[in-house]
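In the laboratory, one determines a bound structure by crystallizing the protein with its ligand and collecting diffraction data. In a computational setting the workflow is compressed into a single prediction: the sequence and the ligand go in, and a structural description comes out. We illustrate the idea with acetyl coenzyme *A.
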Amino acid sequence: MSKKATLEINGNKYEFPIIEGTENELGIDIKTLRGATDGITTIDPGYKNTGSCQSAITFLDGEKGILRYRGYSIEELAEKADFLEVCYLLIFGELPTAEQLEKFDKDIKEESQVDEDMKKILDGFPKSAHPMGVLSSLTSALIAFNPGSVDVDSEEEMYGAIVKILAKFPVLAAWTMRKRKSLPLDYGDNSLGYVENLHKMMFAKPNQAYEANKIVNDALDKLLILHADHEQNCSTSTVRIVGSSHAGLFASLSAGISALWGPLHGGANQAVIEMLEAIKADGGDTAKYIAKAKDKNDPFRLMGFGHRVYKNFDPRAKIIKKSAEEVLGDLGIEDPVLDIAKGLAEVALKDEYFVQRKLYPNVDFYSGIIYRALGIPTEMFTVMFALGRLPGWIAQWREMRLRKEPIGRPRQIYIGENYRKFKAISER
Ligand code: ACO
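The predicted complex, in structure-token form:
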């Protein structure tokens, strides 16, 4: 028998169906609420209790610390798959066959040129501009060079737009970094793999042959996989909601990049390293910063701690912590900031304030440490997150359009002034 929920308002009873997901999650379907109740709405700031869509892409269970892309566990994918396979899996729903992967790779490479005129746009930014702002602008600018909206009912057009952005985005991301470092822009080398090529585009020196480093590229690949999707988070919801107005893929992605930029979301990886550096400069007294984080009169928060959904542990943080230790070991790097991070985590995990509020290290607590070890500048950390999240955003945008979801348009409860008569300027 189908499940139902009953809501009683002022003695009137209303019934709503309960939708059940494949992992037995239940959601009360309130699509008919306003119509049935003559305009009563729900209020849920931050959408903590609101499901915005039905999705078949990513499953996560915050209590049990489970994260799966299309049914495959993040642990297995991080260990056995490469980033391009994960892109294909997220976007198209299945792991690619060898043939499909080869074609996907080839099609992306075909599109890896960026119009030379895009360089003029990049040139207009000051060197000091934050790379996330530049990347969001350049992604938006891509629309001008690739005009025309995608007919989402045409598989071919949809595929074309997807390979285009997967190809051009790493070029733009690498350019934002090269511009800051006063390095000539690089188009990479299509004989390299996707992640190797990204690394080359970021770091190759104009007068030196590029030498790939397996440890570095494997670590980057894993980091990108760990960030590839995370269901309806702030930036993904942004991409879906912008796309729901039938704005194009690139425009929706540009908005997603801006959403990711904030320090409470993707910007946390940069904020973590800045925090750890500040603690180090202040003598490494972790207890002092734990106390500051607990003090309600102090706005300081322990960056990299806490998560809207994970309330036991973040499975990505577990993988990444191990990876950070391996990468630093393999590259022979001793980073005092890693010791401070470990010290903070140890204390916080036992502290009642953090235990009670279920605040655990999240993925970004450790990712910055690896990025640093790989020589990636701090202000580029969130760009690295965006590079990883790209296939997730694309998959979610594609799903939203294929499911023909309506335009996103939440309601509100108005708390402003009641009607007032207009006052002429001389009377105010
Ligand atoms: N340090 C200290 N206290 C914290 C922290 C923190 N990092 N995070 C949450 N709290 C406290 C809050 O003050 C609040 O305490 P209270 O109940 O006494 O008022 C309680 O824990 C609940 O916090 P909320 O902000 O309500 O939790 P929410 O789910 O809204 O926020 C968030 C989650 C934004 C991630 C938050 O934990 C945070 O700001 N963390 C630091 C930033 C960060 O690491 N962001 C990255 C998120 S992961 C990602 O985007 C990949």
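The mean pLDDT is 93. Keep in mind that any predicted model is a hypothesis to be tested, not a measurement.
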